[in-house]
Amino acid sequence: MENENLEYIKTLFPFVSEKQQEQFSKLPALYKQWNEKINVISRKDIDNLFAHHVLHSLTIGKICPFLPDASVLDVGTGGGFPGIPLAILFPQTRFHLIDRTAKKIKVVNAIKESLGLENVIAQQIACEELKQKYDFIVSRAVTNMKDFLSLSKGRISSNSSHRLPNGILYLKGKDAYEEMVDYKGYYQIYDLENIVPLSEYYKTKCLVYISLSK
């Protein structure tokens, strides 16, 4: 199954190199090893690491391929999702992975070191404490959309060079449709079953893009 998932990554992203394939292939063993010490993924779901976590994270890269030297903030990264898979996929993009929980950042740093990811900084810090701005903020359903928008306010750079203007790329359940009804700015919701039609899992998942660069 892992080989099938690696092949699927190459189908989605034909530019992936042998080095990147090797890095992706190491993820299951690394996360199983660390998950026995520090629980960052549900033990019931660890065997679905590729299908439910790695590929889920990479859908962001399908919607918005990050450019070299772009800066991306992963808020509430947990064990490193979506930041770690995206950092493998875009090795010249700078990723800042943050979480309030020290033990989770310990796992992220260990995974980062094992994979040799030089484009990742992992830090135990609250989003509210950050001073710098980023091209994009990514996350996986850490809170409702209203609260996440509040967290992200003022942290997006206005200097945009991507196909999509700078903003938020937020992995969410289908409740996002309801949560975004009253939002007055520009946004778009992508149903992930159209990107990764692998299983029932993706029928309940979507990606919310919100432009906040202006």
- Helix/strand-derived category reads alpha/beta
What does the overall shape look like?
Answer: globular
**Assembly category:** single chain
- How many helices does DSSP assign? 7
* Portion in helices: 25-40%
Strand order of the largest sheet: 3-2-1-4-5-7-6
Strand residues, percent:
15-25%
Mean pLDDT: 93
Let me know the number of strands. Answer: 7
Largest sheet: 7 strands, mixed
String of helices and strands: HHHEHEHEEHEHEE
Low-confidence stretches: none
Query: Any idea what the radius of gyration is?
Result: 16 Å
* Intertermini distance: 44 Å
Give a concise summary.
With 214 residues, the chain is α/β, with parallel strands linked by helices. Helices cover 36% and strands 19% of the residues. The protein starts with a helix and ends with a strand.
Structure overview:
This protein has 214 residues and is of the alpha/beta class. It is built from 7 helices and 7 strands. It has helices at residues 2-12, 18-35, 49-63, 83-89, 102-115, 145-152, 176-179; strands spanning 71-75, 94-99, 120-124, 136-140, 167-173, 187-191, 205-211. Helix 1 crosses helix 2 (18-35) and helix 3 (49-63) crosses helix 4. The chain is globular. The mean pLDDT is 93.
Chart the SSEs and their pairings.
Layout: H1 2-12, H2 18-35, H3 49-63, E1 71-75, H4 83-89, E2 94-99, H5 102-115, E3 120-124, E4 136-140, H6 145-152, E5 167-173, H7 176-179, E6 187-191, E7 205-211
Parallel strand pairs: 1-2, 1-4, 2-3, 4-5
Antiparallel strand pairs: 5-7, 6-7
Helix pairs in contact: 1-2, 1-3, 2-5, 3-4
